[in-house]
Design brief:
By secondary structure, this protein is mainly beta. It is built from nine helices and 33 strands. Among the domains are: 71 residues, Cytochrome Bc1 Complex, Chain D, domain 2 (Orthogonal Bundle); 107 residues, YVTN repeat-like/Quinoprotein amine dehydrogenase (Methylamine Dehydrogenase, Chain H), CATH 2.130.10. The structure holds heme D (DHE). The site of heme D has 17 residues, from strand 9 and strand 33.
Length: 505
């Protein structure tokens, strides 16, 4: 397309400068509009990109250019912004800090400004118009609805007391919001293209996993200043993107998987404990030399060498094992964090989505389940001997799984394909589907969160004119429908800060 556009005389660099740079920045790294680089655009490419340039984007400031630009110009622009940047931009402490925007009108309340139970607040991320709704988890009244950075992704992370929450966008913005005061405190751009964030066990530090640049940014949670930027470089000297970072509260550390080199890192979030406690000296396996030369103190790093790079992952409830998937998506691996090596392989074809894994006790044994992004099935695995106990066939590939300690059921969506409007409810003991909900025929129905006590389940109708449906989690009857703009994830304060076993992280 670029060739024909060039033949027709389109100059994408000049066109970009004239029409796009004011909002998206001359560097294409984003300004008031999002970054226009392939890492940020993701699956929006080719004709889909041309369509947005021509017709604009609803619920955003993006105007339509069809009347000002020819089809060739639009094709040339779409091809230009789909090209990777010639050089990896730097994003140093200085540059991050320059984006820090703390709200001058923020007033910190001494107690919650509402009468609702602060532990039963549920946040709903509405990606349709880039907002978050703050729901009272008992009455389902919307207490506040605030604007977020563009394209929030992944779960917001709460401080251990449940008062503050941090929300990340794909462009690397991190927003801090005070739930008690119902007010934004500020935001900072911690990366240029980011995967997810993790809160430290003590609530003092927030790790931001980046694709661009290849770094892990650690922010101080009190004022969003940079505590450390760690270059993510493998032992052989190769830089890497970060697949995902999570906190391991029992280990007082962050654990991250590297996407481009076969390593898992553990970063101490407590100078006294860190990754070197409990049996680490027994690790006479690969990676030992590096480990012996370990740094000490806060943010000390330990490298664990694995056979192949790991994508997203999930922990056993005791935080001793990490269960991840390889990039090809044809198997799972179990990495023991005590001995620092892989201890098992799981036969999980069809791209297991282990970031959505959950576990529960079944017949006296702990099991875990994961959906698969390419196959209509859930795998149920025994967490003691790592055998696959059962494969539950579903109406199509799913994305998210949720349960609650007080619920007898696992809720599994069918995110992809013709049955994307279905939600399966599965008995945790028999592993049988007991009911398939179809609350909005033809529309995507996905992602579940429970109330604090597990008595209600909140389900998204994942459409721009969507809704959150409140179900009785026992009778499975619909109780309420709250209109929302493409609600994606929902996050209950208590379930998240107490690491409720039915929720992934
Ligand atoms: Fe996500 C969580 C990775 C595509 C919506 N997703 C996560 C997390 C990771 C991840 C690592 C864990 C973050 C956390 O909670 O700390 N997601 C990926 C991918 O690699 C993938 C497949 C490709 C990509 O584009 O990055 C991907 N994710 C999507 C989507 O297309 C979804 C459906 C729509 C969107 O908003 O982009 C999507 N991801 C979500 C949501 C969560 C999430 C709603 C949080 C789930 C939760 O309950 O915690």
């Amino acid at each position: 397309m670029l060739a024909s556009a060039a033949d027709a005389g389109s100059d994408p660099v000049a066109l970009y400068s004239e029409h796009c740079s004011a909002c998206h920045a001359e560097t294409r790294l984003g300004g008031t509009g999002p970054a226009l680089i392939p890492e940020a655009l993701g699956r929006i490419k080719g004709e889909a990109l041309e369509e947005i340039i021509a017709n604009g984007r609803i619920a955003t400031q993006m105007p339509a250019f069809a009347e000002d630009l020819t089809a060739e110009d639009i094709a040339a622009l779409a091809a230009y912004i789909a090209e990777p940047l010639a050089e990896t931009p730097s994003w140093t402490v200085h540059e991050v800090d320059a984006t820090r925007d703390l709200k001058t009108d923020y007033i910190s309340a001494k107690k919650p400004v509402f009468s609702a139970d602060p532990m039963n607040i549920t946040l709903v991320v509405e990606t349709g118009d880039h907002h978050v709704s703050v729901l009272d988890g008992d009455t389902f009244e919307v207490l506040d609805r605030f604007a977020t950075p563009f394209a929030v992704h992944g779960g917001p992370k709460f401080t251990p007391d449940g008062r503050y929450v941090f929300i990340m966008s794909r462009d690397g913005w991190v927003q801090k919001y005070d739930i008690w005061s119902l007010a934004e405190i500020g935001r900072v751009r911690a990366g240029l293209n980011s995967r997810n964030i993790a809160m430290s066990h003590d609530g003092k530090w927030l790790a931001v996993a980046n694709y661009l640049p290849n770094t892990l940014t650690i922010l101080a949670t009190d004022d969003l200043s940079v505590a450390r930027i760690i270059d993510v470089v493998g032992r052989e000297g190769n830089p890497s993107r970060v697949s995902a970072v999570y906190q391991a509260p029992d280990r007082k550390s962050f654990v991250l998987a590297l996407k481009d080199v076969p390593e898992v890192w553990e970063i101490a979030t407590d100078p006294g404990a860190g990754p070197y406690h409990e049996g680490f000296v027994h690790s006479f396996e690969k990676g030992m030399e590096e480990s012996l030369a370990a740094e000490e103190g806060l943010f000390a790093r330990r490298r664990i060498m694995v056979d192949a790079p790991i994508d997203d992952f999930f922990f056993s409830p005791d935080y001793q094992n990490l269960i991840g998937t390889n990039r090809e998506g044809d198997k799972g691996v179990v990495v023991n964090l005590i001995v620092g090596r892989e201890i098992a392989e799981l036969p999980l074809p069809g791209m297991p989505h282990l970031g959505s894994g959950i576990s529960w006790m079944r017949d006296g044994r702990r099991v875990m389940a994961t959906p698969h992004l390419r196959e209509g099935m859930l795998s149920v695995i025994d967490m003691k001997d790592w055998s696959v106990i059962d494969t539950i066939r579903t109406d199509g590939p799913g994305f998210f799984l949720r349960s609650h300690q007080n619920s007898p059921y696992v809720w599994a969506d069918v995110f992809f394909g013709p049955n994307k409007d279905k939600m399966h409810v599965i008995d945790k003991e028999t592993l049988q589907i007991v009911k398939t909900l179809n609350p909005a025929p033809g529309k995507t129905v996905a992602h579940v969160e429970f109330t604090r006590d597990g008595s209600k389940a909140l389900v998204s109708i994942w459409e721009d004119d969507g809704a959150v449906i409140v179900y009785d989690a026992v009778t499975l009857e619909e109780l309420k429908r709250l209109p929302m703009r493409k609600p994606s994830g929902k996050y209950n304060v208590s379930n998240k800060i107490h690491f409720e076993e039915g929720t992934s992280h």
